[in-house]
Amino acid sequence: MATATLPGGGSKNNVTITIGSDANVALQTAINSLFKAAGKNITANTVASGAAGKAGFFNYLPDTVATKSATNLKAGINVQAIIDTQGHAGDTLTGGTKTTLLVGNASGDRIINKTTATVFGGAGNDTVDVTGKVSAYLEAGKNSVNLNGADSVSLLGTGGSDTVNISAGANTVSAMYAANVSIMGTNSNDTLTLGSKSAVTVSGAKDRITLAGNGSVSVMVTGSGDTINAGAGAATITAGAGTVSVMGSTGTINFAHGVGGRDTFVAGTGKITLKGAGTDTKGSDLFKFNVKTAQSTVITSFSASKDTISIAGATAAQIKTALGKATVTGTGTNTKTVFTVGNDHFTVTGGALTTKNVIP
Question: Which among 50, 102, 158, 329 has the fewest CB atoms less than 10 Å away?
């Protein structure tokens, strides 16, 4: 369960509420809590855009402009909520340092928070610019959420076809449903807990991405020097021409080499299917295992001239013996080699294996 902290008239009047998956219940709870947190005054104080609110009151900014054109609603000092009551398409809601509730209405709204907040999107196709922490309930359509360093977003409810864009920094993203995440920055360190069938694209350089959830997630890496830490879920990782490091965990991992890439895969304890360099003349792969970890691995398109299997804890003599006892069928690039070293069992299809390809 996610939580939201909602302030009243002073810093000591904060109240924390639990937010589940029902947006209607969460909104009602949030408004009721704001009234209670405001102190002795139970009457809401309505303020205009940019105006300051009264101390000790629940101050909220409604959209009072009756025209059909989009409006800009900007919270002043001590304004706890912005509620887009008119619902023009394309409105902009900009919260202040005390604004913890922002409610959109029609489609195409832009919502900007300045402190920890709960955000309710409009009819869809909204944009949320996150500063700090946001719990968001977004409607159908193509919604965009933008993070720019040390930010956190929780996508709750059912959402739409949502994309979280990460341009810099260390960020946290969680989603109760399938979402898209685009990581474009350099040297970012992001933790993703996503719903099943989510998709991640990594186009930045030297990024470190941790897949913390249990859902099935696909990852496309087109940047260079990136590290993917796979979690307990099922991860499908496709590398590009850059250098990629993949760290396995307990989940199922499918990894595919990208043409021109120089990739490193470190096995965990989950089920692994790997695709090597194949006919790529420039790229290569290093597949790393541990002789003490019970592991069953399938490697296809293994390049005998470019790819390497490293088994930590094994001796050169053990590997030589294992390859000598291997079951080998087929010829050329269709050679299939089945062998076991310690607790690691391998089925490798590609070029014929030698002790130059399999090393301690």
Answer: 329
118-131: average pLDDT = 94
**Do 102 and 85 contact (CB within 8 A), yes or no?**
no
Give dist(CA 297, CA 288) in Å, integer: 11
- Which tokens sit at 155? 């996508």
Q: How many Cα atoms occupy the beta-carbon half-sphere of 179 within 13 Å?
A: 31
Q: Dihedral through CA 321, CA 324, CA 328, CA 331, nearest 10?
A: 130
What is the SS3 assignment for 255?
A: strand
Neighbouring residues of 1: CB distance < 8 A, sequence distance ≥ 6: 18, 19, 20
Where are the alpha helices (H) located in the chain, listed in sequence order? 23-37, 316-324
Query: So what's the pLDDT on residue 6?
Result: 54
What is the C-alpha to C-alpha distance for residues 239 and 236, in angstroms, rounded to an integer?
A: 10
- HSE, side-chain direction, 13 A CA sphere, residue 203: 7
* Confidence band, pLDDT 50/70/90 cuts, at residue 249: confident
pLDDT in tens, 12-48: 556 565 656 666 666 666 666 655 554 555 678 999 9
Cβ atoms of 355 and 316 closer than 8 Å: yes
How deeply is 251 buried, as exposed, middle or buried, from its count of CB atoms within 10 A (0-12, 13-18, 19+)? buried
298: helix, strand or coil: strand
Please name every residue paired with 262 in a beta bridge, in sequence order, or none if there are none: 284
Q: Which two tokens stand for residue 125?
A: 């196709």
CA distance 14 to 116: 12
Is pLDDT above 60 for 81? yes
Cα 9–Cα 13–Cα 14 angle in degrees, nearest 5: 110
Residue with tokens 């130059």: 356
Q: Round to whole Å and give the CA distance between 109 and 111.
A: 6
Both tokens assigned to 199 = 């998709």
Contacts 24+ apart (CB under 8 A), 102-111: 103/27, 105/63, 107/141, 108/70, 109/84
